[in-house]
Design a protein that fits this description.
Elements (H helix, E strand, L loop, with lengths): L19 E3 L2 E7 L10 E8 L2 E6 L12 E7 L3 E7 L13 E5 L2 E6 L11 E8 L2 E8 L13 E5 L2 E6 L2 H4 L2 E8 L2 E8 L7 E8 L2 E6 L2 H4 L2 E8 L2 E8 L13 E5 L2 E6 L11 E6 L9 E6 L14 E4 L2 E6 L11 E6 L5 E6 L10 E8 L2 E6 L12 E7 L8 E3 L9 E7 L8 E6 L5 E8 L4 E7 L4 E10 L5 E10 L9 H9 L5 H7 L2
Antiparallel strand pairs: 1-2, 2-29, 3-4, 4-5, 5-6, 7-8, 8-9, 9-10, 11-12, 12-13, 13-14, 15-16, 16-17, 17-18, 19-20, 20-21, 21-22, 23-24, 24-25, 25-26, 27-28, 28-29, 30-31, 31-34, 32-33, 32-35, 35-36
Length: about 525
Protein backbone atom coordinates (compact mmCIF):
# COMPACT_ATOMS: atom_id res chain seq x y z
CA UNK A 1 0.00 0.00 0.00
CA UNK A 2 1.21 3.47 -0.74
CA UNK A 3 1.83 5.14 2.61
CA UNK A 4 1.25 8.75 1.68
CA UNK A 5 2.97 11.53 3.61
CA UNK A 6 0.14 13.89 4.21
CA UNK A 7 -1.00 15.99 7.12
CA UNK A 8 -3.73 14.38 9.11
CA UNK A 9 -6.86 16.50 8.78
CA UNK A 10 -9.54 14.81 10.86
CA UNK A 11 -13.13 15.62 9.91
CA UNK A 12 -16.47 14.46 11.23
CA UNK A 13 -17.52 11.45 9.21
CA UNK A 14 -21.27 11.49 8.53
CA UNK A 15 -21.66 7.74 8.20
CA UNK A 16 -23.37 4.85 9.96
CA UNK A 17 -23.92 5.05 13.70
CA UNK A 18 -20.91 3.79 15.64
CA UNK A 19 -21.12 0.31 17.11
CA UNK A 20 -18.76 1.19 19.92
CA UNK A 21 -16.74 4.31 20.75
CA UNK A 22 -13.32 4.17 22.32
CA UNK A 23 -11.58 7.50 23.01
CA UNK A 24 -12.34 8.98 19.61
CA UNK A 25 -11.91 5.76 17.64
CA UNK A 26 -15.23 4.31 16.54
CA UNK A 27 -15.95 0.88 15.08
CA UNK A 28 -17.78 1.81 11.90
CA UNK A 29 -18.49 -1.49 10.19
CA UNK A 30 -17.69 -5.17 10.07
CA UNK A 31 -16.69 -6.51 6.65
CA UNK A 32 -17.43 -10.07 5.56
CA UNK A 33 -17.21 -11.75 2.17
CA UNK A 34 -20.39 -11.77 0.09
CA UNK A 35 -19.85 -15.47 -0.70
CA UNK A 36 -17.95 -16.41 2.45
CA UNK A 37 -18.00 -19.90 3.88
CA UNK A 38 -16.74 -21.74 6.92
CA UNK A 39 -12.94 -21.92 7.25
CA UNK A 40 -12.24 -19.31 4.54
CA UNK A 41 -10.11 -17.31 7.00
CA UNK A 42 -11.26 -13.98 5.56
CA UNK A 43 -9.05 -11.38 7.29
CA UNK A 44 -5.83 -13.37 6.95
CA UNK A 45 -4.37 -10.16 5.51
CA UNK A 46 -5.72 -6.61 5.17
CA UNK A 47 -4.66 -3.32 3.65
CA UNK A 48 -6.06 0.19 3.21
CA UNK A 49 -5.52 2.96 0.70
CA UNK A 50 -7.68 6.10 0.76
CA UNK A 51 -11.28 4.81 0.49
CA UNK A 52 -10.29 1.31 -0.58
CA UNK A 53 -9.77 -1.82 1.50
CA UNK A 54 -8.52 -5.24 0.47
CA UNK A 55 -8.96 -8.38 2.55
CA UNK A 56 -7.42 -11.80 1.99
CA UNK A 57 -9.14 -15.15 2.53
CA UNK A 58 -6.31 -17.60 2.02
CA UNK A 59 -8.32 -20.77 2.80
CA UNK A 60 -11.17 -20.01 0.39
CA UNK A 61 -12.19 -23.10 -1.61
CA UNK A 62 -12.92 -22.60 -5.31
CA UNK A 63 -14.62 -25.11 -7.60
CA UNK A 64 -13.96 -27.97 -5.21
CA UNK A 65 -10.27 -27.16 -4.79
CA UNK A 66 -9.38 -26.52 -1.14
CA UNK A 67 -7.35 -23.63 0.25
CA UNK A 68 -7.01 -21.95 -3.12
CA UNK A 69 -7.47 -18.52 -1.59
CA UNK A 70 -8.97 -15.23 -2.74
CA UNK A 71 -9.00 -11.52 -1.97
CA UNK A 72 -11.86 -9.01 -1.75
CA UNK A 73 -11.81 -5.32 -2.58
CA UNK A 74 -14.16 -2.97 -0.72
CA UNK A 75 -14.77 0.71 -1.38
CA UNK A 76 -16.18 3.47 0.78
CA UNK A 77 -18.61 6.09 -0.47
CA UNK A 78 -20.81 6.96 2.46
CA UNK A 79 -20.91 3.23 3.26
CA UNK A 80 -18.65 0.25 2.62
CA UNK A 81 -19.48 -2.12 -0.24
CA UNK A 82 -17.71 -5.04 -1.88
CA UNK A 83 -16.38 -4.02 -5.28
CA UNK A 84 -14.65 -7.20 -6.47
CA UNK A 85 -13.43 -10.65 -5.61
CA UNK A 86 -9.91 -11.37 -6.90
CA UNK A 87 -8.68 -14.86 -7.75
CA UNK A 88 -5.66 -16.17 -9.62
CA UNK A 89 -6.16 -17.03 -13.28
CA UNK A 90 -4.32 -20.35 -12.75
CA UNK A 91 -5.46 -21.11 -9.22
CA UNK A 92 -4.77 -24.48 -7.68
CA UNK A 93 -5.45 -26.21 -4.38
CA UNK A 94 -3.32 -25.14 -1.41
CA UNK A 95 -1.75 -22.10 -3.14
CA UNK A 96 -3.13 -19.95 -0.29
CA UNK A 97 -3.57 -16.92 -2.51
CA UNK A 98 -4.37 -14.04 -0.13
CA UNK A 99 -1.75 -14.86 2.51
CA UNK A 100 -0.42 -11.36 1.85
CA UNK A 101 -2.00 -8.41 0.05
CA UNK A 102 -1.49 -4.71 -0.62
CA UNK A 103 -3.33 -2.00 -2.51
CA UNK A 104 -2.11 1.31 -3.95
CA UNK A 105 -4.40 3.41 -6.10
CA UNK A 106 -5.71 1.24 -8.93
CA UNK A 107 -3.19 -1.55 -8.33
CA UNK A 108 -3.28 -4.48 -5.95
CA UNK A 109 -0.83 -7.29 -5.30
CA UNK A 110 -1.69 -10.67 -3.77
CA UNK A 111 0.79 -13.28 -2.61
CA UNK A 112 0.38 -17.04 -3.12
CA UNK A 113 3.43 -18.43 -1.29
CA UNK A 114 2.53 -22.09 -1.71
CA UNK A 115 2.11 -22.02 -5.47
CA UNK A 116 4.16 -24.88 -6.95
CA UNK A 117 5.04 -23.52 -10.42
CA UNK A 118 8.80 -23.70 -9.79
CA UNK A 119 8.74 -26.49 -7.25
CA UNK A 120 6.79 -27.22 -4.07
CA UNK A 121 5.99 -23.97 -2.26
CA UNK A 122 8.17 -21.93 -4.60
CA UNK A 123 5.48 -19.25 -4.52
CA UNK A 124 4.21 -16.46 -6.71
CA UNK A 125 2.39 -13.13 -6.59
CA UNK A 126 -0.33 -11.61 -8.75
CA UNK A 127 -0.88 -8.00 -9.71
CA UNK A 128 -4.34 -6.69 -10.49
CA UNK A 129 -5.39 -3.39 -12.03
CA UNK A 130 -8.68 -1.52 -11.77
CA UNK A 131 -10.49 0.13 -14.64
CA UNK A 132 -13.60 1.93 -13.49
CA UNK A 133 -15.10 -0.47 -10.98
CA UNK A 134 -13.69 -3.63 -12.59
CA UNK A 135 -10.52 -5.45 -11.61
CA UNK A 136 -8.45 -7.72 -13.85
CA UNK A 137 -5.22 -9.65 -13.46
CA UNK A 138 -2.36 -7.76 -15.08
CA UNK A 139 0.59 -10.01 -14.29
CA UNK A 140 1.80 -13.05 -12.41
CA UNK A 141 5.28 -12.48 -11.05
CA UNK A 142 7.83 -15.03 -9.86
CA UNK A 143 11.48 -14.78 -8.91
CA UNK A 144 14.00 -15.19 -11.70
CA UNK A 145 15.73 -17.87 -9.62
CA UNK A 146 12.59 -19.43 -8.15
CA UNK A 147 13.01 -22.76 -6.39
CA UNK A 148 11.11 -25.14 -4.15
CA UNK A 149 10.63 -23.93 -0.59
CA UNK A 150 11.18 -20.24 -1.32
CA UNK A 151 7.66 -19.26 -0.20
CA UNK A 152 7.86 -16.25 -2.50
CA UNK A 153 4.76 -14.18 -1.72
CA UNK A 154 4.63 -14.74 2.03
CA UNK A 155 4.78 -10.93 2.21
CA UNK A 156 4.08 -8.24 -0.40
CA UNK A 157 3.73 -4.49 -0.75
CA UNK A 158 3.21 -2.03 -3.59
CA UNK A 159 3.74 1.70 -4.05
CA UNK A 160 3.60 3.52 -7.36
CA UNK A 161 5.54 1.59 -9.98
CA UNK A 162 7.36 -0.63 -7.46
CA UNK A 163 6.24 -3.90 -5.91
CA UNK A 164 8.21 -5.93 -3.38
CA UNK A 165 7.78 -9.62 -2.57
CA UNK A 166 9.38 -11.51 0.30
CA UNK A 167 10.74 -15.06 -0.02
CA UNK A 168 11.88 -16.00 3.51
CA UNK A 169 12.52 -19.64 2.61
CA UNK A 170 15.03 -18.81 -0.13
CA UNK A 171 18.51 -20.36 0.19
CA UNK A 172 17.71 -22.63 3.12
CA UNK A 173 15.77 -19.96 4.98
CA UNK A 174 18.36 -17.22 4.59
CA UNK A 175 15.65 -15.30 2.81
CA UNK A 176 15.49 -12.58 0.17
CA UNK A 177 13.11 -9.98 -1.13
CA UNK A 178 12.52 -9.19 -4.79
CA UNK A 179 11.61 -5.82 -6.24
CA UNK A 180 9.62 -5.49 -9.46
CA UNK A 181 9.04 -2.37 -11.53
CA UNK A 182 6.14 -1.59 -13.83
CA UNK A 183 6.56 -0.24 -17.35
CA UNK A 184 3.21 0.22 -19.02
CA UNK A 185 1.37 -2.99 -18.26
CA UNK A 186 4.49 -5.12 -17.82
CA UNK A 187 6.28 -5.96 -14.60
CA UNK A 188 9.95 -6.98 -14.49
CA UNK A 189 12.34 -7.92 -11.69
CA UNK A 190 14.47 -4.93 -10.67
CA UNK A 191 16.43 -6.28 -7.75
CA UNK A 192 17.06 -9.19 -5.41
CA UNK A 193 17.72 -7.88 -1.91
CA UNK A 194 19.27 -9.82 0.94
CA UNK A 195 22.07 -10.06 3.47
CA UNK A 196 24.21 -13.11 4.20
CA UNK A 197 23.83 -12.67 7.96
CA UNK A 198 20.05 -12.87 7.81
CA UNK A 199 17.59 -15.63 8.55
CA UNK A 200 14.05 -15.65 7.13
CA UNK A 201 14.61 -12.24 5.57
CA UNK A 202 11.49 -11.23 3.70
CA UNK A 203 9.10 -12.62 6.32
CA UNK A 204 7.71 -9.07 6.24
CA UNK A 205 8.20 -6.23 3.76
CA UNK A 206 7.05 -2.63 3.40
CA UNK A 207 7.75 0.04 0.80
CA UNK A 208 7.40 3.83 0.80
CA UNK A 209 8.38 5.56 -2.44
CA UNK A 210 12.08 4.68 -3.03
CA UNK A 211 12.74 2.95 0.30
CA UNK A 212 11.95 -0.56 1.49
CA UNK A 213 12.28 -2.29 4.84
CA UNK A 214 12.44 -6.06 5.24
CA UNK A 215 12.16 -8.10 8.40
CA UNK A 216 14.35 -11.07 9.21
CA UNK A 217 12.98 -12.52 12.44
CA UNK A 218 15.27 -15.58 12.46
CA UNK A 219 18.54 -13.63 12.59
CA UNK A 220 20.85 -14.41 15.52
CA UNK A 221 18.85 -17.23 17.10
CA UNK A 222 15.52 -15.52 16.43
CA UNK A 223 16.61 -12.27 18.07
CA UNK A 224 15.69 -10.74 14.74
CA UNK A 225 16.67 -7.81 12.55
CA UNK A 226 15.41 -5.64 9.72
CA UNK A 227 17.16 -4.15 6.70
CA UNK A 228 16.53 -0.88 4.86
CA UNK A 229 17.29 -0.49 1.17
CA UNK A 230 16.99 2.67 -0.93
CA UNK A 231 16.74 3.01 -4.69
CA UNK A 232 19.05 5.45 -6.46
CA UNK A 233 21.31 5.38 -9.53
CA UNK A 234 19.01 2.70 -10.91
CA UNK A 235 19.95 0.21 -8.18
CA UNK A 236 18.89 -0.80 -4.67
CA UNK A 237 21.44 -0.12 -1.93
CA UNK A 238 21.57 -1.43 1.63
CA UNK A 239 21.41 1.60 3.92
CA UNK A 240 20.91 0.28 7.43
CA UNK A 241 20.42 -2.81 9.57
CA UNK A 242 17.97 -2.38 12.42
CA UNK A 243 18.04 -4.26 15.70
CA UNK A 244 16.38 -3.71 19.06
CA UNK A 245 18.44 -1.92 21.71
CA UNK A 246 17.50 -4.62 24.23
CA UNK A 247 16.96 -7.52 21.85
CA UNK A 248 17.18 -11.06 23.12
CA UNK A 249 16.98 -14.62 21.83
CA UNK A 250 13.53 -15.55 20.48
CA UNK A 251 12.24 -11.95 20.47
CA UNK A 252 11.60 -12.36 16.71
CA UNK A 253 12.18 -8.68 16.00
CA UNK A 254 11.18 -8.04 12.39
CA UNK A 255 8.25 -10.44 12.33
CA UNK A 256 6.35 -7.39 11.10
CA UNK A 257 7.61 -4.11 9.62
CA UNK A 258 6.08 -0.93 8.24
CA UNK A 259 7.54 2.27 6.80
CA UNK A 260 5.95 5.67 6.24
CA UNK A 261 7.92 8.80 5.45
CA UNK A 262 10.81 9.08 7.90
CA UNK A 263 9.57 6.42 10.31
CA UNK A 264 9.94 2.65 10.51
CA UNK A 265 8.27 0.35 13.02
CA UNK A 266 9.30 -3.24 13.70
CA UNK A 267 7.34 -5.76 15.76
CA UNK A 268 8.94 -8.21 18.17
CA UNK A 269 6.09 -10.46 19.37
CA UNK A 270 8.41 -12.78 21.28
CA UNK A 271 9.82 -10.08 23.53
CA UNK A 272 9.54 -10.92 27.25
CA UNK A 273 8.70 -8.06 29.62
CA UNK A 274 8.19 -10.04 32.80
CA UNK A 275 6.82 -13.28 31.38
CA UNK A 276 7.03 -14.95 27.98
CA UNK A 277 5.94 -13.47 24.67
CA UNK A 278 4.21 -10.33 25.85
CA UNK A 279 5.71 -8.57 22.86
CA UNK A 280 7.04 -5.15 21.91
CA UNK A 281 7.50 -2.85 18.94
CA UNK A 282 10.28 -0.40 18.09
CA UNK A 283 10.15 2.94 16.26
CA UNK A 284 13.12 4.17 14.22
CA UNK A 285 13.47 7.66 12.73
CA UNK A 286 15.42 8.63 9.63
CA UNK A 287 18.41 10.82 10.57
CA UNK A 288 18.90 14.19 8.91
CA UNK A 289 21.70 12.78 6.75
CA UNK A 290 19.71 9.86 5.34
CA UNK A 291 18.79 6.28 6.09
CA UNK A 292 22.24 5.24 7.26
CA UNK A 293 23.01 4.86 10.96
CA UNK A 294 19.38 4.57 12.02
CA UNK A 295 18.76 4.88 15.72
CA UNK A 296 15.93 3.56 17.83
CA UNK A 297 13.51 6.36 18.74
CA UNK A 298 10.99 4.59 20.91
CA UNK A 299 10.24 1.17 22.35
CA UNK A 300 6.52 0.48 22.65
CA UNK A 301 4.73 -2.02 24.87
CA UNK A 302 1.07 -2.47 25.75
CA UNK A 303 -0.18 -0.83 28.92
CA UNK A 304 -1.80 -4.11 29.99
CA UNK A 305 0.73 -6.55 28.57
CA UNK A 306 0.39 -10.15 29.68
CA UNK A 307 1.89 -13.51 28.86
CA UNK A 308 1.62 -14.77 25.27
CA UNK A 309 -0.26 -11.73 23.95
CA UNK A 310 2.22 -11.54 21.06
CA UNK A 311 1.95 -7.76 20.89
CA UNK A 312 3.78 -6.70 17.71
CA UNK A 313 2.72 -9.68 15.61
CA UNK A 314 1.56 -7.16 12.99
CA UNK A 315 2.26 -3.44 12.76
CA UNK A 316 1.36 -0.55 10.47
CA UNK A 317 2.30 3.13 10.57
CA UNK A 318 0.95 6.22 8.85
CA UNK A 319 1.40 9.88 9.74
CA UNK A 320 0.59 10.59 13.38
CA UNK A 321 -0.45 7.04 14.21
CA UNK A 322 0.75 3.49 14.41
CA UNK A 323 -1.40 0.42 15.04
CA UNK A 324 0.04 -2.70 16.68
CA UNK A 325 -1.76 -6.01 16.95
CA UNK A 326 -1.99 -8.40 19.86
CA UNK A 327 -3.94 -11.32 18.36
CA UNK A 328 -3.54 -13.59 21.39
CA UNK A 329 -4.88 -11.08 23.90
CA UNK A 330 -7.64 -12.57 26.05
CA UNK A 331 -9.89 -9.58 26.87
CA UNK A 332 -12.99 -11.11 25.24
CA UNK A 333 -12.00 -14.71 25.75
CA UNK A 334 -8.94 -16.80 25.00
CA UNK A 335 -7.14 -15.39 21.95
CA UNK A 336 -10.00 -13.03 21.18
CA UNK A 337 -7.37 -10.48 20.20
CA UNK A 338 -6.89 -6.73 20.26
CA UNK A 339 -5.01 -3.88 18.59
CA UNK A 340 -3.45 -0.74 20.07
CA UNK A 341 -3.13 2.71 18.57
CA UNK A 342 -0.20 4.93 19.52
CA UNK A 343 0.16 8.60 18.64
CA UNK A 344 3.33 10.29 17.41
CA UNK A 345 2.46 13.81 18.60
CA UNK A 346 2.55 12.60 22.20
CA UNK A 347 5.87 10.74 21.89
CA UNK A 348 4.23 7.56 20.62
CA UNK A 349 2.05 7.02 23.65
CA UNK A 350 -0.87 4.63 23.75
CA UNK A 351 -4.14 6.35 22.85
CA UNK A 352 -6.61 3.48 22.74
CA UNK A 353 -6.97 -0.27 22.78
CA UNK A 354 -9.31 -1.61 20.11
CA UNK A 355 -11.38 -4.75 20.43
CA UNK A 356 -14.25 -6.07 18.34
CA UNK A 357 -17.74 -5.14 19.52
CA UNK A 358 -18.69 -8.82 19.17
CA UNK A 359 -15.30 -10.29 20.05
CA UNK A 360 -15.12 -13.90 21.23
CA UNK A 361 -12.58 -16.59 22.02
CA UNK A 362 -10.32 -17.73 19.18
CA UNK A 363 -11.25 -14.83 16.87
CA UNK A 364 -7.63 -13.64 16.69
CA UNK A 365 -8.72 -10.06 16.15
CA UNK A 366 -5.47 -8.38 15.13
CA UNK A 367 -4.19 -11.21 12.97
CA UNK A 368 -3.70 -8.44 10.41
CA UNK A 369 -3.81 -4.65 10.64
CA UNK A 370 -3.56 -1.62 8.38
CA UNK A 371 -3.84 2.15 8.84
CA UNK A 372 -4.29 5.12 6.52
CA UNK A 373 -4.74 8.62 7.92
CA UNK A 374 -7.62 8.40 10.42
CA UNK A 375 -8.81 4.89 9.54
CA UNK A 376 -7.76 1.46 10.82
CA UNK A 377 -8.63 -1.98 9.44
CA UNK A 378 -8.23 -5.05 11.67
CA UNK A 379 -8.59 -8.64 10.53
CA UNK A 380 -10.11 -11.38 12.72
CA UNK A 381 -9.48 -14.34 10.47
CA UNK A 382 -11.14 -17.01 12.62
CA UNK A 383 -14.24 -15.06 13.59
CA UNK A 384 -17.42 -17.13 13.50
CA UNK A 385 -20.21 -15.26 11.75
CA UNK A 386 -23.16 -15.80 9.43
CA UNK A 387 -20.78 -17.31 6.85
CA UNK A 388 -19.77 -20.10 9.21
CA UNK A 389 -17.16 -21.18 11.72
CA UNK A 390 -13.76 -19.53 11.08
CA UNK A 391 -15.21 -17.72 8.09
CA UNK A 392 -13.40 -14.60 9.25
CA UNK A 393 -14.08 -10.88 9.20
CA UNK A 394 -12.44 -7.47 9.23
CA UNK A 395 -13.37 -4.38 11.25
CA UNK A 396 -13.11 -0.75 10.18
CA UNK A 397 -12.42 1.90 12.81
CA UNK A 398 -12.49 5.64 12.12
CA UNK A 399 -11.24 8.47 14.28
CA UNK A 400 -14.04 10.94 14.98
CA UNK A 401 -12.67 14.32 15.98
CA UNK A 402 -14.52 17.57 16.72
CA UNK A 403 -12.78 20.85 15.82
CA UNK A 404 -12.16 23.50 18.48
CA UNK A 405 -14.79 26.18 19.07
CA UNK A 406 -14.41 29.43 17.13
CA UNK A 407 -11.88 31.53 19.06
CA UNK A 408 -13.33 34.53 20.89
CA UNK A 409 -11.21 37.65 20.45
CA UNK A 410 -11.57 40.38 23.05
CA UNK A 411 -10.01 43.82 22.92
CA UNK A 412 -10.53 47.41 21.73
CA UNK A 413 -12.16 47.68 18.28
CA UNK A 414 -10.47 50.97 17.50
CA UNK A 415 -7.53 53.05 18.52
CA UNK A 416 -4.58 55.10 17.38
CA UNK A 417 -1.52 54.16 15.46
CA UNK A 418 1.81 53.61 17.20
CA UNK A 419 -0.04 52.66 20.38
CA UNK A 420 0.10 49.13 21.87
CA UNK A 421 -3.24 47.41 22.52
CA UNK A 422 -3.94 44.23 24.46
CA UNK A 423 -6.15 41.39 23.17
CA UNK A 424 -7.18 38.00 24.50
CA UNK A 425 -7.95 34.85 22.53
CA UNK A 426 -9.73 31.77 23.85
CA UNK A 427 -11.10 28.52 22.39
CA UNK A 428 -12.22 25.22 23.88
CA UNK A 429 -12.00 21.72 22.45
CA UNK A 430 -15.07 19.42 22.66
CA UNK A 431 -12.73 16.42 23.00
CA UNK A 432 -10.60 18.16 25.66
CA UNK A 433 -7.58 18.01 23.38
CA UNK A 434 -4.73 20.48 23.76
CA UNK A 435 -4.82 23.49 21.45
CA UNK A 436 -2.48 25.63 19.38
CA UNK A 437 -3.18 29.28 18.53
CA UNK A 438 -2.16 31.32 15.48
CA UNK A 439 -2.85 35.08 15.42
CA UNK A 440 -2.70 37.12 12.22
CA UNK A 441 -2.81 40.83 13.08
CA UNK A 442 -4.00 41.84 9.62
CA UNK A 443 -0.93 43.94 8.79
CA UNK A 444 1.24 41.16 7.36
CA UNK A 445 2.49 40.16 10.81
CA UNK A 446 1.56 37.10 12.85
CA UNK A 447 2.55 35.14 15.94
CA UNK A 448 3.18 31.80 14.27
CA UNK A 449 1.71 28.71 15.91
CA UNK A 450 1.85 28.90 19.71
CA UNK A 451 1.25 26.03 22.12
CA UNK A 452 0.22 23.49 23.06
CA UNK A 453 -2.19 24.88 25.65
CA UNK A 454 -4.95 23.19 27.62
CA UNK A 455 -8.47 23.54 26.29
CA UNK A 456 -9.92 26.89 27.36
CA UNK A 457 -6.55 28.56 27.81
CA UNK A 458 -6.71 32.36 27.44
CA UNK A 459 -3.91 33.64 25.23
CA UNK A 460 -2.82 37.25 25.75
CA UNK A 461 -1.33 39.29 22.96
CA UNK A 462 -0.20 42.88 22.45
CA UNK A 463 0.08 44.59 19.10
CA UNK A 464 0.82 48.03 17.66
CA UNK A 465 -0.32 49.19 14.24
CA UNK A 466 1.85 51.78 12.51
CA UNK A 467 -0.49 52.82 9.71
CA UNK A 468 -4.03 54.10 9.82
CA UNK A 469 -6.78 51.89 8.42
CA UNK A 470 -9.07 48.95 9.22
CA UNK A 471 -7.51 45.58 10.09
CA UNK A 472 -9.02 42.13 10.56
CA UNK A 473 -7.43 40.17 13.38
CA UNK A 474 -7.69 36.45 12.62
CA UNK A 475 -7.14 33.81 15.30
CA UNK A 476 -6.97 30.13 14.45
CA UNK A 477 -7.27 27.35 17.01
CA UNK A 478 -6.01 23.87 16.07
CA UNK A 479 -6.05 20.53 17.87
CA UNK A 480 -3.20 17.97 17.62
CA UNK A 481 -4.99 16.18 14.76
CA UNK A 482 -5.17 19.20 12.47
CA UNK A 483 -8.81 20.23 12.99
CA UNK A 484 -9.04 24.02 12.94
CA UNK A 485 -11.49 26.85 13.60
CA UNK A 486 -11.06 30.58 13.09
CA UNK A 487 -12.38 33.77 14.69
CA UNK A 488 -12.14 37.38 13.45
CA UNK A 489 -12.24 40.84 15.02
CA UNK A 490 -12.20 44.04 12.98
CA UNK A 491 -10.07 46.86 14.37
CA UNK A 492 -9.99 50.42 13.05
CA UNK A 493 -7.25 52.94 13.43
CA UNK A 494 -8.75 56.43 12.70
CA UNK A 495 -8.64 57.29 9.04
CA UNK A 496 -5.88 59.63 8.10
CA UNK A 497 -6.82 63.32 7.85
CA UNK A 498 -3.98 65.77 7.75
CA UNK A 499 -5.13 69.34 7.14
CA UNK A 500 -2.78 71.56 5.19
CA UNK A 501 -0.12 72.99 7.44
CA UNK A 502 1.36 76.44 7.31
CA UNK A 503 4.95 76.12 6.03
CA UNK A 504 6.20 77.47 9.33
CA UNK A 505 4.32 74.79 11.33
CA UNK A 506 5.54 72.10 8.93
CA UNK A 507 9.12 73.32 9.42
CA UNK A 508 8.61 73.47 13.18
CA UNK A 509 7.25 69.90 13.43
CA UNK A 510 10.04 68.53 11.27
CA UNK A 511 12.71 70.51 13.15
CA UNK A 512 11.46 69.31 16.54
CA UNK A 513 9.90 65.83 15.85
CA UNK A 514 9.07 65.07 19.50
CA UNK A 515 7.74 68.48 20.54
CA UNK A 516 4.25 69.91 20.63
CA UNK A 517 2.32 66.61 21.08
CA UNK A 518 -1.01 68.27 21.90
CA UNK A 519 -0.83 70.52 18.86
CA UNK A 520 0.18 67.60 16.64
CA UNK A 521 -2.78 65.55 17.87
CA UNK A 522 -5.24 68.38 17.33
CA UNK A 523 -4.00 68.90 13.80
CA UNK A 524 -3.89 65.12 13.06
CA UNK A 525 -0.24 65.35 12.14
Amino acid sequence: MKKKIIGICICMLLIATALSVQAGWSEKTKLVASDGAANDRFGSAVDLDDNDAIVGAYFDDISGASNVGSAYVFTYSGAWSQQAKLTASDYAADDQFGTSIAISGDYAIVGAPFDDDSGTSSGSAYIFVRSGASWSQQAKIVAADAAAGDEFGISVDIDGNFAIVGAPGKSSNQGFAYVFVRSGSSWSQKGKLGATSSSHLGCSVSISEDTVVMGAYGTNSNTGAAHIYQFYNDSWWLKSKLTASDGGVSDMFGTSVSIDGDYVICGAPGYDISVADEGAAYIFEKPVGGWGDMTETKKITASDASSSDNFGMHVAICGYYTVISSPDDDDNGTASGSAYIFEKSTDWTQKVKLTASDGASQDYFGWSVSIIDNRVLVGAYTDDNSNGVDAGSAYVFDFINSPPTIPVITGPPNGKINTPYNYTFVSTDPDSDTLYYFVDWGDNTNTGWLGPFVSGYVLNGTHTWTNKGTYNIHCKAKDPYGAESEGTLSVTMPLSYEPPLHPFLLWLFNRFPHAFPILRNLLGY
